[in-house]
Design a protein that fits this description.
The protein is built from 13 helices and 20 strands. It is an alpha/beta fold and 473 residues long. The protein folds into two domains: 138 residues, Leucine Aminopeptidase, subunit E, domain 1, CATH 3.40.220.10; 320 residues, 3-Layer(aba) Sandwich (Aminopeptidase), CATH 3.40.630. α3 runs parallel beside α4, α9 runs parallel beside α12 and α11 crosses α13. The longest helix has 22 residues. 52% of the residues are buried.
Length: 473
Amino acid sequence: MKTLIKKKTTISDKDNLILLCDKKSSLKSFDFSKSELSFIAKQQKDKKEIVTINQYNKLVFVVVPKKEKNTNQYQENCRMLGDQLQGSLKDEKSVLIIDVKGNQREVLAIAEGMALSNYTFTKHKTEEKPNKLETLYLCKNSNKKDIDELQNIIDAVYLTRDLVNEPFSHLTAKDLANSAKKGGKNSGFKTTVFNKKKIESLKMGGLLAVNKGSIDEPTFTIMEWKPKNASNKKPIVLVGKGIVYDTGGLSLKPTANSMDLMKTDMGGAGTVIGAMYAIAANKLPIYVIALIPATDNRPSGNAYAPGDVITMHDGTTVEVLNTDAEGRLVLADALSFAKKYKPELVIDLATLTGAAAYSIGHFGIVSMHRNTEKEHANLKKIGEQTHERLAEMPFWSDYDQLIKSDVADIKNLGGPAGGAITAGKFLAHFVDYPWIHLDIAGPTFIKAKYGYRGKGATGMGVRLLYQFIKNRA
């Protein structure tokens, strides 16, 4: 169910209210009784950030966010307050957020946290219904442009979460491509989908090898947002790993806590589709292209096998030591294909390695980069602002030795040490442009609620990419 964010210019006596205040704010105009005002004052003295007043026909929340010297942390605290407020309002249809203290940025952060927290995935449940909370109203002095922008971002994150939560039974490579088409139709970007015959003509050996064990054909999706007022001639290219289901291939995964969650292995693709939706819907004046190589990875009599040598899109030969290191193979073809655009910058996103998840857990994104110190620093800064933070890994040349092969140009596995880094080194072989690699294996899907990110698919990365692209405008 979509969460709507709207502007409201009037207050009725039945509106649930969230009053954003500070300790100096006057509440006399909100018809509190003396006992209620006394209770609010006592709670604020005890440093309660949210004071709840049940007036029977409505709920009123007096919110005084605690002060933080760090602006980014303060904004995140406001989003987390939104998460708490949503928990108290999920059985209500609507709420009006009123800016008593005069800080629209805080109102938007609270609304963002509430809307993101309000997401549910109940598509396949026969009885359970979504949260009742449908509409977040913002007070009359809210900027409509800001509201519309936030609505599109929320919709984009919902889209990504829906895709990542969707099981493989309902999301093949073709379905993923169709979802990109639908996203483009709804937001404005152009979508082109290559079928297997076209992929074969492009000699994308990595994507084709991974697809050999599948009964479903692969797809290669190109999304393009090129507004007439774009400030850049050379595009920024986003690349998302689209492994819609990963058994590990002949290097079969154990089931417990691994294969059972592998519907999420297209998290990079889902994030890129969501980011493109937000970019196009908000009409950012930046030329952006997104690429999604997609297939499932299954064992069969025709599946590619450990020890095979395959030839990639750019002619590189790769020794396959483990068919479960398949994401880097499909990404490599997309990264080499990206050269045709002479890109200003390429960012790839992938649920690439367990090593990344083990390194930092679900609290952030593992990053590596080449030839783009400034761009990575900017992305890292925005990660702090959106709380979709980057943990940069070393990318020393020493690691290059670990992917050298005795029988081919390189191999697809670097050994047990530095697994996230050697996966990045494999990808780096296929780029000759400024490039950032984001391994989102940790935060893409989580088993326990993590604030407004919820439980299951988080959509982490959408807000990061959107804000990064927006800042370039």
